[in-house]
Amino acid sequence: MNGHKLLYWDKVVNVGNGWEVQETPNGADPLPKTTNGMKILDFGKNSCCFATPGEMCMKEQVVDLMGQGFTAEDLDKQPIIKISEWFASHADFIGDYLLEATLLNEKKENMKSFLFKDDFSDKQLGKWHQVIHIFSNYGTGVRYVKFSHAGQSQLNFPGHLGTKMSGGVVSLQPLIKKKNKFKYH
C-alpha cells in the first residue's frame, strides 16, 4: 500500500480495501497541469493520488503551525488560512467526497471549521475538481489546522474504485502593514 506515502496521516476509518496510493490515477484523468491557463503548483513533482474503496475511508493530519515556524504573535494577527485539495471520482463509478478543515487552539479545541461534501451528481466522472476555502477573521489563538478527507464509491465493489484526492494544501498568507494600510501578501 505504499505506507511511506501515508506517513503523516492518521487513518481514522480504514475499512474494506482501505486507502491506496496510486502512482498515477487509476480510472481517472491524470492530475491537471493547468487550470484557467495558470500552472498548478499544488502537486509539486507528484503524479500520484490517494484512492478509496467502495466503503467510506477517512484520514486526517494535524498541522502544528508553530512547529512550521510561525510564532504566536504571527498567528494572532489572523493571517488568511487557505485550504485546498483536488478530487475526482473513478470514471465508471460515482463516489462521495468529504473535506473538513478545522482551526484548533493550543488545547486543540475547535475554533472554526469548514465542511465540504460532494456526491459528483453535477460533475463529469473521472475529471479533477478543486475545493478551496479561505479562513479569515477567526479570532486569536489558532495554533493547529486539522485537515480531514474521506471518500468512497457509491457501489461497494472490491478494489479502489472510489474517490481520489491529491494536492491537499494548507497555506497562510500573512497580513503585511505598508504605509499605514494592511494588505494581504
Automatic annotation (TrEMBL):
Source taxonomy: Eukaryota, Metazoa, Ecdysozoa, Arthropoda, Hexapoda
Q: Which GO terms describe its molecular function?
A: ubiquitin protein ligase activity
User: Which residue range or ranges hold the FBA domain?
Assistant: 1-174
Give the species. Ladona fulva (Scarce chaser dragonfly)
Name of the protein described by the UniProt record: FBA domain-containing protein
Any one of the GO BP annotations: SCF-dependent proteasomal ubiquitin-dependent protein catabolic process
Source organism superkingdom: Eukaryota
List, alphabetically, the GO terms of the cellular component aspect: cytoplasm; SCF ubiquitin ligase complex
